[in-house]
TrEMBL record:
InterPro entries: AAA+_ATPase, ABC_transporter-like_ATP-bd, ABC_transpr_CbiO/EcfA_su, Metal_Ion_Import_ABC, P-loop_NTPase
One MF annotation (Gene Ontology) recorded for this entry: ATP binding
PANTHER family according to UniProt: METAL TRANSPORT SYSTEM ATP-BINDING PROTEIN TM_0124-RELATED
Domain of life: Bacteria
Any single Gene Ontology cellular-component annotation: membrane
Domain ABC transporter: 6-246
Keywords in alphabetical order: ATP-binding, Nucleotide-binding, Transport
Name of the featured protein: ABC transporter ATP-binding protein
Amino acid sequence: MAGDVLELDGVGIRRDGARLLRDVDWTVNEGERWVIIGPNGAGKTTLLQVAATMLHPAEGTVDVLGERMGKTDVFELRPRIGFASAAVAEKVPPGEKVIDLVLTASYAILGRWREQYDTTDVTRAVELLDALGCADLVRRRFATLSEGERKRVQIARALMPDPELLLLDEPAAGLDLGGREDLVARLARLAADPAAPTMVLVTHHVEEVPPGFTHAMLIRGGTPLALGKVDEVFTAEHLTRCFDIPLTIERQNDRWYARSTR
Ligand SMILES: Nc1ncnc2c1ncn2[C@@H]1O[C@H](COP(=O)(O)OP(=O)(O)OP(=O)(O)O)[C@@H](O)[C@H]1O
């Protein structure tokens, strides 16, 4: 495998007396597809925000795409990272058109202003929306979209700058069964594409892990409880410890299913 895309060493974050992350050591290599799973409040979103250079830990070191946080200009680094999360969606200006939301990702900004985009940019944005099944939404306002449509548009936006690292925070949250299965299939196709960026996906459910994802982290209380190759991490013992209830897990056709044994 080629070089490290993410390297976290002893990372810790405190806010208002609470420890959000503690002793996080984590390496993501180029081409890997990671999933992060853990209970509510485990620190998943916080960890993804660190990877997205949105949060700077007081403890430990963070290297993203070979650049050391605190010693590099994050505004130059951010266009190399695709980031889709509810935190980003909440900041979309009211009235923002779908096409503009995707186009502005080239500058890692929200809200189109006076930047100039050429026809190549517009063509790429439309192609990405089309690939995610959203071609008919191009002229719509983001605020008027359904939850499922928003999720797919956000992934198109995250892919727009042709990122080296793609971070997806709960992309299937709020989707109905059909929407979830459609998204999982699209993400599986992306995961199988050798030209696709290194990926990290946060989810609550092993059923949402797309086929082709290679690595997993289980996190609880701000600390990774197990991390490594997906089939070594997704065990009944690890999941039971992570969620604090007896769980079994099985794999069928490269999809994962977990349930309680109580
Ligand atoms: N500013 C803050 N001050 C104190 N605690 C905070 C602050 N921000 C986040 N937290 C806490 O940090 C913990 C981790 O939050 P985070 O959003 O990363 O968890 P998560 O694993 O993504 O949770 P969920 O699955 O519910 O989305 C939570 O307990 C949250 O309440």
